[in-house]
Amino acid sequence: MNILQEFDTIAAIATPLGMGGVGIIRISGEKAFEIIEKIFTNPKFEPRKFNLGWIVDNGVKIDEVLVLPFFAPNSYTGENVIEIQCHGGLNVVKNILNLVLENGARMAEKGEFTKRAFLNKRLDLSQAEAVADIIHSKTCDFAKATAKNLSGVLKEKVNEIRNEIFEVLSRITAGIDFPEDVAEPEYSYLIEEFENIINKIDKILLNARSSNILRQGISVAIVGKPNVGKSSLFNALLSLDRAIVTDIAGTTRDVLKETLDLGIPVTLIDTAGIREEGENKVEAIGIEYSKQSLNEADLVLFVYDSTQGIQKEDEEIYNLVKDKNHIVIANKCDLISERNPEKVYLSALTGEGVQDLKHALTKKVCDIEPENLEFVTNSRQQACLNNAKKALDQALLAANIQELQDLISIDVKASLLALDELTGELITDDILDNIFDHFCIGK
Ligand code: GDP
User: Fold this and answer.
1) Ligand 1: does its nearest atom lie under 6 Å from the Cβ of 352?
2) What does the pLDDT look like over 246-274, one tens digit per residue?
3) What CATH fold (topology level) applies to the domain 215-367?
4) Which position among 286, 360, 395, 428 has the lowest Cβ density within 10 Å, counted as fewest Cβ atoms?
């Protein structure tokens, strides 16, 4: 991404390419109004009020549209912005974009609108990253958690910590620079403050594992001997999530893998498809296949038939599972009357226990229930927080041995810089380009 071109006028299609009710073309930059005035029949604009009219190309009508104007600095990017809502056909959207480009705009690069919003201080970096997260989120819970980041929850938490570090640093610096007027802060004060701030960073980092799992998802293998109800369980879990997130490429009707939204994105691996190829084949490769699925899985659902209890063949498979993160499921519980309260009973047929299994599964892999996540962090933000923490650990160590405060201040400054990198106050062009490269065009 070329930093030098930042303040020319850019345009892009902001809606997915394809057929839909509405398509949106977005223009941002100084010439946004000049361009729309050349191609729109009703360009008397009031801020944030739609105007109905026609887009025309040298007198030829292209489409009847609504135009929504935003005057700088009150827009997403902080610049003049025009959004054209036209009919959602692929070619009409392209025709209008081409006309906008011919009249003085440049095609926007990936994430360039959001990058401008960041550079014009409409968003901090954690909010800009939340925009990408909300677009790419694989589950409803993750989308909700990223919306909290967008509203500034993570930014506020980090700023609160930053202010505390800044206060300590100011007091140390005053003591060093004006030794006659200002006393150096007590070491006991420094120790207490450093411990307190490290605790706060730890609290933010606590959700790192859950954030990563919610972002990336986990793979779950369903294993067990033939006929215990693995494919029935697979289907029961699928129907729990009516809106399947994605079909993994290459799978067919006898689904082997499916990604679904169980609060976290879960890719289920089942041995069902293999069984359809013939009973004999299964006899031969049943255990082998289970082993293979196990290697891929973050969590294993070991299923047995509760009407039969655990038999020798079940045990053989269980021995492969027992050292992995797993849940033992006694299936077909609709056929039995007595139950052991220690066990997880389920009926893939009636659906009893399936919802509970969903919760058990989330609990096994996440430290925090997805719906309780206050905000999310990504690996870049986690690295910044870890760097801030490491620097403060050093400062704490130094304060404990009453090191010169001049030396302590070096570590305190380093922790401040790490947090500034998180919010984007201090960031290099490389990192910025890397972040915005993960966006789509038009955002
Ligand atoms: P798999 O070979 O382990 O994948 O087992 P299937 O899912 O194909 O199920 C084997 C048989 O058990 C089928 O006839 C299912 O209808 C039946 N079955 C599966 N789960 C249950 C259950 O929870 N209760 C009852 N009664 N039957 C079940």
Assistant:
1) no
2) 333 333 334 466 778 887 888 887 654 33
3) Rossmann fold (3.40.50)
4) 428
